[in-house]
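Escalation from tier 1.

The customer reports that the assembly of two entities below gives different C-alpha cells on two consecutive runs. Tier 1 could not reproduce it. I'm attaching the input and our single run for tier 2 to review.
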Amino acid sequence: MLIEITKDLDQLAFAEVLEKESGTDVKKCYQCGKCTAGCPANYLMDISPSQTIRFSQMGMKEKILNSQTIWNCIFCETCSTRCPQGVDIKGVMDGLRRMAIRQGIRPKAQVRNLEKAFKDNIKSFGRVYEPGVVLDFNFRSGNILHDVIYFPLMLIKRKISLLPHFKRTAEVKRVLRKAFQISRKAQEEAKE
Amino acid sequence: MNYAYYPGCSLESTSPDFNISTEALIEFLSLDIPEVDDWVCCGASSLHPEDKLASLALPALTIESAEKQKRDIMVQCPACYAHLRESQEALTHEGTMQDNLKEAIGREISAKLKIKHFSEILMQEIGLEALQAKVTKPLKDIKIANYYGCVIVRPQELMQYDDPEDPQLMDKLVNITGAESVSWPFKTKCCGAGNSISKTEVTLDMTYQILSMAKKNGADAISVLCPLCHINLDFRQPQIERRYKEKFNLPVFYYTQLLGLAFGLDPKKLALDRLFVSPFPLLKSKGILS
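Tier 1 run:
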C-alpha cells in the first residue's frame, strides 16, 4: 500500500512551525526508538514518542495535535537526555501542547484543572499553598474528597502547614498580567 | 560562602520535614545562610506550558531579592532550582526574552549570582573530609538506594549537577554517614511527579516500580533530595501497597536527615517523626537509636 505523505503545503509548513515553537530540529531523528524505550509514560500514549517525531517529519498535524500523547507526557526529559541525535523530544511535546491550545484544542480536563489551580493559587498568595491546590483541583474536577481524606492524618503528623503565606501578591499579579500581555502581543504580531 | 536559602513553596507547605532537617544541618555546621527576603513562588510546573515569559518572570523576582541581600542562592527543591537557573539564563543573555522580562517586571535584574543546590554546597564548599570528621554516630549496616528523580539531573546542560544516568553526588554524601549506597538502575527514573494530584494512579504505577527495584537491589531505605519524590514514595507508600497487594515498608529519608542522624542530631530536630513510613523500627534494629 502506498501512503501519500506530504503533498499538502500546509502540512509541510507544520514541521517548520513546530521546529520554531520547540527550538529543535525534528528532521535529525533516525528512529532508533530510544525515547520510546525509556519513556515512563509511553503506556499512556496512543502515539509513541518516536512515532510522534516521525509523524512530525511527515507533517501529520491533525493526528498529532489530536493525540492523547501530548497531554500524557510528564516532561521528565529522559527522552531528550538520551536522544543520540540531540532532538529535544520534551521540547517538541511542550511545543505541540501550545500549538494545540492555539488551535482551540482543549487540554484534557485533568491537565487544565491542575494548571488553573496552581495559577490561581500563585496569584492569590504569591507562594503556593499546596493543600489549597489539591482542594481547588478537586472542586474543579468534581471529586471533592480525593486525597482530602488524608488531610487529618497529615495534620496530626504536622506534614502540612495549616495556613497559606501571603507574599507580594499585588506585585506577582501585576508581573504575571504584564507577561501574559507581552506574550499575547508577540503572538498576534507573528500571525500578521 | 555567602548564600541565602530559598526553601520554595513545597518545603513551606507540604514538606516541612525537609525544611526542618535542612535548618538543623545549617545550624549544626554553623553556616551563615539566612532565608531569602520575601521570596515568592518559582511558578511551579503550571506556567511554562502556557506562557514561557510568565514562567521566567516569577523566579526573577526571587533572584532580585537575593541580589539585594548581596548573596548567592541556596536551593533544596530541584524544580525551584531548575526554574531559577532557567530564569537566570534568560536574564543574563541578550535577546528578546531578556527585553521582555525587563518590560514585564518593570526593572532590570542583573542576575549575576551563583545558584546552587544544598547538596552541591556540602560537597564542593565544605567537602567530604570535613563532613566525615563530624560523624559521631555512623549508620552501620544500613543499605540505602539513592533516588535522584528527574529534575536535578535533566536537562544536563542547564542543571550541570551530575551524570544524568548514574549520578554519584548523593551516594557520596550518604556514604560518609557509614551507610552503604546500593548500586541500582532506577536512580533517575521518573516518580510521576505532578501526576500525583491529577492522575494519582499513574504516580502509583511509577512509584511501585521504583520501590520494588530498590527492594530487589537490597535497600533497607531510600534517600531523596526532592520534596515531590518524597511525597510520592513516602506518603503514597501505603496506597501503593494496597494497590499492588505487596508490602514494602521502605522508609524514605531526605539526605539531610541521614546526615543529621550520623552527626548525632536529635531525631525530633530532623523531623523523623513526620515521615509516613516510620524509620524507627529500622533504626532501632540496627542499633542506631535505642
